[in-house]
Design goal:
Elements (H helix, E strand, L loop, with lengths): L11 E6 L9 E2 L2 E2 L5 H10 L2 E6 L4 H13 L4 E5 L7 H5 L4 H17 L3 E10 L8 H18 L3 E6 L2 H9 L9 E3 L6 H10 L2 E4 L7 H9 L5 E3 L27 E2 L9 E2 L8 H12 L3 H16 L6
Parallel strand pairs: 1-4, 4-5, 5-6, 6-7, 7-8, 8-9, 9-10, 11-12
Antiparallel strand pairs: 2-3
Length: 316
């Protein structure tokens, strides 16, 4: 069955979207190329059935911005609160020291959770691919501290793991029993064995364009149990590119709105090279093709998994 033959409209949750990125305000590398178009970006996604957005917080400031976006788009946008492993050094650099920053994070997360604006603690985790951003020691120390905060506040986890599976699983597994809603590893690019170990721990797997670059990636996607799958764009990053192994599965996928170079931008157009949540239709299409099932099955499973884990304002 193709999308055009669907009997009911497809609905999506984009569980990883960086709407606080300056690109959505028209800024690229510190230079303004066009007017901000966040309203249009969100509307385009709504038009294809993307009803919920989880706006990623990657440090204290960005988490505050994500919460503000959740305020500005009530019922549609929800924030995550946390410090990305590549930003772990910020704890030691914080005025007043790491304890002060942890205290600020706690306050922000508690208030935003109680206000119904934040639904997950993250993006937290480990990244040994990019140790030039933050060394191993602060990453480990502050991943552990933030996991303990999430347990204290009782928020599900929005997680990042790159080339660090052993330490990541060790720190995570001891705390998951204290988190009834568990968590999700987003933008997953690990091996089948890593995926299976995470699934056994009770963790969901988030898939976007970056998760489907290689044939090995596609084998992992094929093997993810539907009851553990969630989908995302990770915009403005992680678009599906013609060079990716996934591109061959795009035949028959819904067309995206016309895109132009940022310098030629005008209202109503996407920006070339800037991924946005409307492209979630293509992520779902490729996953369905790889798994040999309908897009309806992919969307229904991902929707149910996201709502079960994060709530997203939907009463169960």
């Amino acid at each position: 069955m193709t999308e055009a033959e669907s009997t009911k409209p497809l609905r999506y949750v984009d569980i990883g979207i960086n709407l606080s990125d300056p690109m959505f305000q028209g800024h690229y590398h510190g230079k303004k190329a066009h007017d901000g178009d966040l309203d249009d970006v969100i509307q385009r996604a709504k038009d294809i059935g993307c009803e919920k957005f989880m706006v990623t917080g990657s440090d204290l400031e960005e988490s505050q911005t994500a919460i503000q976006i959740a305020r500005d788009y009530p019922g549609f946008c929800y924030a995550t609160v946390g410090v990305h492993p590549c930003q772990a050094k910020l704890f030691d650099e914080y005025p007043g020291g790491p304890e002060k920053m942890i205290s600020e994070l706690r306050k922000l997360a508690v208030e935003a959770k109680e206000a119904g604006l934040a639904v997950a603690f993250g993006e937290i985790g480990l990244d040994y691919d990019r140790l030039f951003h933050s060394q191993k020691e602060p990453q480990l120390k502050y991943f552990e501290a933030q996991l303990d905060l999430a347990v204290e506040i009782q928020m599900p986890l929005f997680l990042h793991s790159r080339a660090a599976s052993e330490d990541f699983e060790r720190l995570l597994s001891s705390r998951l029993p204290s988190l009834p809603m568990g968590g999700l590893v987003h933008s997953f690019t690990g091996t089948i064995e890593e995926m299976q170990r995470l699934v056994e721990l009770g963790v969901d797997i988030g898939i976007n364009g970056c998760s489907m670059k290689t044939e090995e990636n596609l084998e992992v996607v094929k093997a993810i149990p539907l009851e553990r799958l969630q989908i995302e764009t990770d915009g403005p990053w992680c678009e599906i590119r013609p060079s990716h192994a996934s591109a061959k599965f795009l035949q028959g996928a819904p067309e995206l709105p016309k895109s132009v170079k940022k310098e030629k931008w005008q209202k109503g157009f996407m920006v070339k090279g800037r991924n946005e949540p409307v492209a979630i239709v293509r992520v779902a299409h490729v996953i369905a093709q790889v798994k040999g099932i309908s897009v309806e099955e992919v969307c229904e499973a991902a929707w149910n998994n996201s709502v079960k884990m994060f709530g997203l304002g939907i009463q169960s």
